[in-house]
Write a structure and sequence with these properties.
With 133 residues, the protein is an alpha+beta fold. The protein has one domain. It is 50% helix and 13% strand. The strands form two sheets. The chain has a three-stranded antiparallel beta sheet, with helices on both faces. A two-stranded antiparallel ribbon has the order 3-4. Strand 1 and strand 2 form a beta hairpin. Helix 4 packs across helix 6. The longest helix is centred in the first third of the chain and has 20 residues. It is globular and about 45 Å long. The termini are far apart. The mean pLDDT is 84.
Length: 133
């Protein structure tokens, strides 16, 4: 079994999945599909109140299951763990990007993201960063 939450070397990153947590680096097509799935569940958790933001620490799991929920508590918990661990293991890549917040704003405002696209190739992200510098 391949682990999603792992450190990906900079030269192996093929692109990023964008979710509420931020940019999640991907190496393979398996990474892209799994991170898109978990990123979607993670975002849904915040929209429905199953997860809450904490200013001083990692996002918190609130839980609570109601009829008609798209995802179970276990799926939301797993998404929180996988997205969080993957982001933390790859945080070194982003510490060197002072333009990260601006890049995230540009990607979130893009038409493709608003239409549901979550994966962006590294060439597109690098082009945005070059424009911002």
């Amino acid at each position: 079994m391949k682990f999603i939450h792992r450190k990906i070397p900079k030269d192996k990153i093929s692109g990023f999945v964008l979710c509420d947590f931020g940019l999640l680096p991907c190496e393979t097509a398996f990474d892209v599909e799994e991170l898109k799935k978990y990123g979607q569940i993670y975002d849904w958790g915040f929209r429905t109140g199953k997860l809450k933001r904490s200013k001083s620490s990692f996002p918190q799991f609130v839980g609570g299951q109601s009829a008609g929920d798209l995802y179970t508590e276990t799926e939301v918990w797993d998404a929180l763990q996988i997205v969080g661990k993957h982001a933390l293991k790859n945080i070194g890549f982003f510490s060197n990007l002072p333009e990260l917040e601006e890049t995230l704003k540009v990607l979130r405002k893009s038409l493709s993201y608003r239409l549901g696209r979550r994966y962006f190739e590294i060439k597109k992200v690098n082009a945005i960063i070059r424009k911002l510098t």
